[in-house]
Automatic annotation (TrEMBL):
<keyword id="KW-0368">Histidine biosynthesis</keyword>
<dbReference type="GO" id="GO:0004400">
    <property type="term" value="F:histidinol-phosphate transaminase activity"/>
</dbReference>
<keyword id="KW-0808">Transferase</keyword>
<dbReference type="InterPro" id="IPR015424">
    <property type="entry name" value="PyrdxlP-dep_Trfase"/>
</dbReference>
<dbReference type="InterPro" id="IPR005861">
    <property type="entry name" value="HisP_aminotrans"/>
</dbReference>
<protein>
    <recommendedName>
        <fullName>Histidinol-phosphate aminotransferase</fullName>
        <ecNumber>2.6.1.9</ecNumber>
    </recommendedName>
</protein>
<comment type="subunit">
    <text>Homodimer.</text>
</comment>
<comment type="similarity">
    <text>Belongs to the class-II pyridoxal-phosphate-dependent aminotransferase family. Histidinol-phosphate aminotransferase subfamily.</text>
</comment>
<dbReference type="GO" id="GO:0030170">
    <property type="term" value="F:pyridoxal phosphate binding"/>
</dbReference>
<keyword id="KW-0663">Pyridoxal phosphate</keyword>
<feature type="domain" description="Aminotransferase class I/classII large">
    <location>
        <begin position="25"/>
        <end position="345"/>
    </location>
</feature>
<comment type="pathway">
    <text>Amino-acid biosynthesis; L-histidine biosynthesis; L-histidine from 5-phospho-alpha-D-ribose 1-diphosphate: step 7/9.</text>
</comment>
<dbReference type="InterPro" id="IPR050106">
    <property type="entry name" value="HistidinolP_aminotransfase"/>
</dbReference>
<dbReference type="GO" id="GO:0000105">
    <property type="term" value="P:L-histidine biosynthetic process"/>
</dbReference>
<keyword id="KW-0032">Aminotransferase</keyword>
<keyword id="KW-0028">Amino-acid biosynthesis</keyword>
<dbReference type="Pfam" id="PF00155">
    <property type="entry name" value="Aminotran_1_2"/>
</dbReference>
């Protein structure tokens, strides 16, 4: 609270980002970063951009990047929007589509930025409970609403909603924008981008922070029909007409073009996820079925907060949410083979 803040700012409840520790030598499995580096072609493209070119403003429309995304997804460039991380793309979407004077529906266990944006943009949040298996039930998304948003796969559960269920939600809500937040879709799910041509109310949001290992670059995107993209552009051009710098545009475009490296690293993460899951099951954990680059697991007898603390004492950090219904779970990002082995060894020690 401050006498200088407006009542609006006094009442904001901001997002608390996952911890980014300053110490090195940590096994860092807490914020779902990719353990493998970005494509070498993306690094080369960024390096080439850093020189005299930095005198010049970047392209405000980020055409080079939009074209690379359009090519990858085989959609028209007019269906692509890009921004400074998917957090920014999501913020623009909330601003553009969800300020309808009606509640926004989202799963009660999902990305904790959604209620924060509701606070920022004066939107009534209406969390919808997950079912007993921690799954999204499409039947629950039929109430009167001013929009719908959910991550697919969901976070932090990792559970995937099949495209048929996504379609059910789209069909039941033709008047609302349905935003599918696909931050983790490349680790085993089918993207709803294939539905964009059929559904004018669908907006798909993605990030380069996970499957393309560029969290530090801050690039996100949205794909939807031109009417929705134009809405996003109106907000963007009223806020920051240069959302991406020159290195980000060049690097992100090269990352999208390097399909081979992308597939290789995603496959490796998926393979490791299955190994980590097996090992956790062997240690007495229940592991929710994950289509993401992390697993969500609870132990049959040990307290999750104590396990997280015990791992931290061994310099291994995972994510613990002190939140109803999930306070016995740990969210563990998939790391390199060495990091995953350290995790399992650390847990073995705590459980023995
Ligand atoms: N959506 C979900 C579901 C996420 O977990 C994250 C990462 N924390 C984001 C969006 C934002 O990703 P970024 O801003 O790095 O693109």
């Amino acid at each position: 609270m401050s006498q200088f803040w407006s009542p609006f700012v006094n009442n904001l409840v901001p997002y608390v980002p996952g911890e980014q520790p300053k110490v090195t030598q940590l096994v860092k499995l807490n914020t779902n970063e990719n353990p493998y580096g970005p494509s070498p072609k993306a690094l080369a493209a960024m390096q080439a951009e850093i020189g005299d070119n930095l005198r010049l403003y970047p392209d405000p429309n980020c055409d080079q990047l939009k074209q690379a995304i359009a090519e990858y997804y085989q959609v028209p460039v007019s269906q692509v929007f890009v921004g400074n991380g998917s957090d920014e793309v999501l913020a623009h979407a909330f601003n553009a589509f969800f300020r309808q004077g009606k509640p926004l529906l989202f799963p009660d266990i999902s990305y904790s930025f959604y209620p924060v944006y509701c606070g920022l943009y004066g939107i009534e949040p209406k969390p919808v409970a997950l079912d007993e298996e921690f799954q999204i039930n499409p039947e629950d998304y039929r109430q009167d609403n001013g929009g719908i948003i959910f991550p697919n796969p969901n976070a932090p559960t990792g559970c995937l909603l099949p495209l048929t269920a996504v379609e059910q939600i789209l069909q039941a809500n033709p008047q609302s924008v349905v935003l599918v937040d696909e931050a983790y879709i490349d680790f085993g799910g089918d993207s709803a981008v294939s539905l964009v041509a059929q559904y004018p109310n669908l907006l798909v949001c993605q990030t380069l922070s996970k499957s393309r290992s560029l969290a530090g670059l801050r690039v996100g995107l949205a794909i939807g029909q031109p009417e929705l993209i134009e809405g996003l552009e109106r907000i963007k051009n009223s806020f920051n007409s240069y959302p991406l710098d020159r290195a980000a545009i060049a690097g992100a475009a090269a990352a999208f073009a390097d399909v081979e490296y992308f597939q290789q690293t995603c496959n490796k993460v998926i393979e490791s996820r299955e190994q980590v899951t097996e090992a956790l099951l062997g240690l007495g954990f229940e592991v929710l079925p994950s289509a993401a680059n992390f697993v969500f697991a609870r132990h049959s007898s040990q307290d999750a907060a104590a396990l997280a603390q015990g791992l931290r004492e061994q310099n291994i950090i995972v994510r613990y949410f002190n939140q109803p219904r999930i306070d016995q779970f740990l969210r563990i990002s998939i790391g390199t083979d060495t990091e995953n082995a350290a995790l399992i060894k650390g847990l073995q020690q705590l459980l023995s």
